[in-house]
Specification:
single chain, 322 residues, alpha/beta, ten-stranded mixed sheet, 28% strand, elongated
């Protein structure tokens, strides 16, 4: 997510943003929007991410900035993609352009946190999400009626569907599918369904479960050899070793930059134990279960606390993994 503004004599003369993957970058759109190109040599270009210096889906932005003889470039933060990583700044400086860096750096990194985590940690940005009762349970003990096990309000449910449309993949484990039969889609809002990921070591999930619908691409992680069947891809994992590392490596290779982990409690706690999370979104509903499966225990700094319908939503940030 990149935006660019061009300023001449204290006035904005051009602006643009990166509108879609593979399309012109922010700097290109901003320069093209300037009516009088003769003003560019005396202008300052502001951009929140270091201009690219390599040929990717589009030509290097640095070359266009240099060709238009823009005298000063102010950059929010370094692009840590190995293809850029300071090369853009160096190229601009070598062309005699004044470069100012790290302006509102933290805010600029927050804007593209998924992008930075992907390139710096070689894994997706990981969001843990669950709902818990007022007395600290994530679920009743099975067997249970799905409606009786539901914790949160319709407003929260709709918000979760919105979140799913904002991320690239969603992960659950076997019992969540067997007990809840979730769709793991964005049915209540408009948006793109995430890649559905399910840990199912022994291929227990069979039949007409919703995850076999053709609504979204579905991947099962299993101990069996890899195969494809029933609108789903089965990927072999070595369950004698750390499976989270294997799953995250699979997602990195597929260029998946964000992941929501929705359950169950054991899976969520394993991500917390391995310190493999960046953000946690925890709903506390207006219900008590008295007994059942306890909610995960998580450290972290609360950065937001909201009321969603009858529920409280707490959002935590992982400071240890920062």
């Amino acid at each position: 997510m990149v935006g660019c503004v061009i300023v001449y004599n204290g006035k904005i003369i051009g602006e643009g943003y990166h509108q879609e993957y593979g399309g012109p970058h922010a700097e290109v759109n901003a320069i093209n929007s300037v009516a009088d190109k003769n003003l560019l040599p005396e202008s300052t270009l502001f951009v929140n991410l270091e201009p690219c210096s390599h040929h990717g889906k589009t030509p290097p932005c640095c070359d266009l900035i240099i060709a238009n003889k823009i005298k000063r470039v102010v950059i929010g933060c370094l692009d840590t993609n190995p293809l850029v990583a300071g090369k853009g700044i160096e190229k601009l400086k070598q062309a005699g352009i004044e470069v100012v860096t790290d302006i509102l750096k933290d805010e600029c990194r927050e804007l593209n946190k998924r992008f930075f985590i992907f390139h710096e940690k070689k894994r997706p940005y990981i969001i843990l999400k669950w709902a818990q009762t007022k007395d600290g349970f994530i679920s009743r003990n099975p067997p249970f009626n799905k409606n009786e096990n539901w914790i949160t309000s319709e407003e929260s449910k709709k918000l979760v569907h919105l979140w799913r449309g904002q991320e690239q993949a969603i992960l659950v484990a076997t019992n969540t599918v067997l007990n809840d039969n979730p769709n793991l889609t964005v049915r209540l809002v408009e948006g793109k369904n995430p890649l559905r990921l399910i840990i199912d070591k022994d291929c227990k999930i069979k039949g007409d479960y919703h995850v076999f619908s053709g609504e979204a691409e579905t991947v099962f992680f299993t101990a069996k050899p890899s195969f494809t069947q029933d609108n789903a891809q089965y990927i072999h994992l070595d369950f004698s070793n750390n499976i989270l590392a294997q799953i995250l490596n699979f997602l990195y290779e597929k260029k998946i930059i964000s992941l929501i982990v929705e359950g169950g409690a054991k899976l969520l706690q394993s991500f917390i134990h391995e310190n493999l999370w960046d953000e946690a979104r925890i709903f506390t509903g207006d219900k008590t279960f008295v007994s059942g499966i306890k909610s995960p225990v998580i450290p972290g700094k609360e950065i937001s606390n909201l009321s969603i319908g009858t529920d409280a939503l707490s959002i935590l940030k992982n400071q240890a993994g920062a």
